[in-house]
UniProtKB/TrEMBL annotation:
Entry-linked Pfam families: CcmH
GO BP annotations, alphabetical order: cytochrome complex assembly
Name assigned to this protein: Cytochrome c-type biogenesis protein
Parts of the chain that traverse the membrane: 85-103
Role, per record: Possible subunit of a heme lyase.
Source species: Shewanella maritima
Organism phylogeny: Bacteria, Pseudomonadati, Pseudomonadota, Gammaproteobacteria, Alteromonadales
GO cellular component: plasma membrane
All residue ranges annotated as the CcmH/CycL/Ccl2/NrfF N-terminal domain in the record: 7-122
Length: 131
């Protein structure tokens, strides 16, 4: 176990806000602890500052919160086996949309090329297809 660190009041304030931004409020939807005004968020912010005053590191405080609330306390989830779909599905959807757009462009180009021929060329083409 690491020896307690001695932070200045300014460091405590900065680190406390930084940690509160990285952790999700358990009671609010899509809000981090810093932005939330829920009673539990206020309790957790107080806990963060208390632990910083006790000299605990940022990592130790985050680990404490994860142990208490689970991985979902992270505002931005870490990439691991259980969260990989959160990262892979959006990338796959963007790639799928790009492929679809390229296919649409190619289809439109082919149609435009067929229509650009002169009326005589179109008649000759039609006659060849009827023979």
């Amino acid at each position: 176990m690491q020896a307690p660190k001695h932070y200045t009041q300014e460091q405590i304030k900065t680190l406390g806000f930084e940690i509160a931004k990285e952790l999700r409020c358990p009671a609010s939807i899509n809000q981090n602890l810093l932005d939330s005004q829920a009673p539990i968020a206020n309790e957790l912010k107080a806990e963060i500052f208390l632990q910083l005053e006790q000299g605990k590191s940022k990592q130790a405080i985050i680990e404490f919160m994860v142990a208490r609330f689970g991985e979902q306390i992270h505002y931005m989830p870490t990439l691991n086996a259980s969260t990989s779909a959160l990262f892979i599905i959006p990338i796959f959807m963007v790639l799928l949309a790009i492929v679809w757009l390229v296919a649409q462009q190619m289809r439109q180009s082919r149609c435009a090329n067929k229509l650009q021929g002169s009326p005589q060329q179109r008649l000759m083409t039609e006659e060849k297809t009827h023979e």
